[in-house]
Design goal:
BBS8, mainly alpha, elongated
Length: 539
């Protein structure tokens, strides 16, 4: 007969015993598996033991004695878990609010030389695409294939325009550095600890913790990311770097991050440069480039990235940084070359594939763009924007059977009204392309139902109204479009043509000048201005 197997467990007469897991190791296991809430709760239980079993932790100063290693470990692990819950990489996340744009005291030159400033991207020598082919953002840059924080808001030229900018943080007010994630970070402590903050910063003896390097680093990240208290974080970092005799590059980078967040860009630059001398790190190069871009010195940032590539050949983040700067400076051909270099190193880089696909689409090569977007679909990217782009590529590549099904999928996957509006707007374009004016009219109306600030839809509706002979409605729609998007040349030009037809020459001339300002190379605008000048000369 087969021998009976030994059974480890809690049953009566079993051969083994169930072991109680060590709480600290269990918490560490949760942390490594990114289950931060369970980790935090377990550490809280360890720290809330009866007073006889532990000495008080930070923010609850002990009467005497040391701080046991076990409690120190639990406290350190809890701070790291709470930090990880709200952690956002500072390198990629950057929001430039209205105050930073309009009240910028760090500008090197008010009128920069062509090709050296991000504020005048249209003057670049790279021969960027014409706005007639590729739509531009408010700052005059062609729209990119990938949404980044810096490409969302643009650089408004006047304070009035800044306040009217499209709402990017999906709030009722224009984006400021206090909106978006900073609001979320400020309230993070209340969300994670309903009974109050875990560490009482006002009672914290920073000098004491600065002398314990391992605890100090966890504490700094907690203060900086979780509590969003930059001044206290800076004080701790200054004390810790002093304790390390200014030899620890990590603390210098953290001080630089604090200075950057406080708007002290030149001080941040000094700290990052000093850190690079001690320890050559890709992250530090990226932080330093961020400082130069905020100071509107893209050429310096490009040189920094290229020097970094000499020391870290083939580093994807550095090549991608160069491509982004070229794209922001309207030098699309150079940007595309660097994005191709990115794909040589990392052929699943979503941003590079999306940007090259977008570039091919606007270069009148929808079939090639379709290959890039299909590649993204194969990689598992499955969202509204991708199906929207696939639908457009299929339409312009004359694969009509796939067009409507792609747009249907895009509508199904849309997460908010802005995305839905984009899809309906593109469907309106398809309807115009196949000659179904009534469908186009309905699509543009649905666009405005979802997003009432959609200037392009107002402009296209006005064109349809003009075809029907409704002149006054068309003029009203064009005025709305031009006030919502002064950077677009189409509403100004259409309004100028319409006004000239009805004999309102003065308004026509004013609108034509605005159109020329938005797109200096537009031949039809120049001809219209020439005609109007002849009229005025005859009068």
């Amino acid at each position: 007969p087969a021998p009976s197997r030994s059974r480890c467990g809690g049953s009566a007469g079993g051969m083994g015993l169930e072991l109680e897991p060590e709480p600290l190791f269990q918490a560490w296991s949760y942390f490594r598996r990114r289950k931060f809430r369970q980790c935090s709760e377990l550490c809280s239980q360890l720290l809330e033991r009866p007073p006889g079993e532990q000495v008080a932790g930070p923010g609850r100063e002990a009467g005497g004695g040391g701080w046991p290693g076990r409690e120190a470990a639990a406290w350190s692990l809890k701070t790291r878990a709470l930090t990880e819950m709200v952690y956002v990489d500072e390198i990629d996340m950057d929001q430039e609010g209205i105050a930073e744009m309009m009240l910028d005291e760090n500008a090197i030159a008010q009128v920069a030389r062509p090709g050296t400033s991000l504020k005048l991207p249209g003057t670049s020598q790279g021969g960027g695409p014409s706005p007639a082919v590729r739509p531009v953002t408010q700052s005059g840059r062609p729209i990119t294939g990938f949404v980044r924080p810096s490409t969302q808001s643009g650089r408004p030229s006047t304070m009035e325009q800044a306040i009217k900018t499209p709402r990017t943080a999906l709030t009722a007010r224009p984006i400021t550095s206090a909106s978006g994630r900073y609001v979320r970070l400020g309230t993070a402590s209340m969300l994670t600890n309903p009974d109050g903050p875990f560490i009482n910063l006002s009672r914290l003896n920073l000098a004491k913790y600065a002398q314990k390097p391992k605890l100090a680093k966890a504490l700094f990240e907690y203060i900086f990311h979780h509590e969003n208290d930059i001044k206290n974080a800076l004080d701790l970092a200054a004390l810790a770097t002093e304790h390390a005799q200014f030899k620890d590059w990590w603390w210098k980078v953290q001080i630089g991050k604090c200075y950057y967040r406080l708007g002290l860009y030149r001080e941040a630059e000094k700290q990052f440069k000093s850190a690079l001398k001690q320890q050559d790190m890709v992250d530090t190069i990226l932080y330093l480039a961020k400082v130069y871009l905020r100071l509107d010195q893209p050429v310096t940032a490009l040189n920094l990235f290229k020097q970094g590539l000499d020391r870290f050949p083939g580093e994807v983040t550095l090549i991608c940084g160069i491509a982004r700067i070229y794209e922001e400076m309207n030098n699309i051909s150079s940007a595309a070359e660097y994005y191709k270099d990115v794909l040589k190193q990392d052929n699943t880089h979503v941003e590079a594939i999306a940007c090259i696909g977008s570039n091919h689409f606007y270069s009148d090569q929808p079939e090639i763009a379709l290959r890039f977007y299909r590649r993204l679909l194969q990689m598992g990217v499955y969202n509204c924007q991708l199906f929207n782009n696939l639908g457009l590529c299929c339409f312009y590549a004359q694969q009509y059977d796939m067009t409507l099904s792609s747009f249907e999928r895009a509508l199904f996957l849309a997460e908010n009204e802005e995305e839905t509006a984009d899809v309906w707007y593109n469907l309106g374009h398809v309807a115009v392309g196949i000659g179904d004016v009534n469908l186009a009219y309905q699509c543009f109306k649905l666009t405005l139902v979802n997003n009432n600030d959609y200037a392009e839809a107002y402009n296209n509706l006005a064109v349809l109204e003009m075809r029907k002979g409704h002149i006054e409605q068309a003029r009203a729609l064009l005025q709305t479009a031009s006030s919502l998007a002064p950077h677009m040349y189409e509403p100004h030009f259409n309004f100028a043509v319409l006004s000239e037809k009805v004999g309102d020459l003065q308004r026509s001339y004013t609108a034509a000048q605005k159109s020329e300002e938005a797109f200096p190379g537009h031949v039809d605008t120049q001809q219209l201005i020439k005609q109007l000048k002849q009229h005025f000369a005859m009068l």
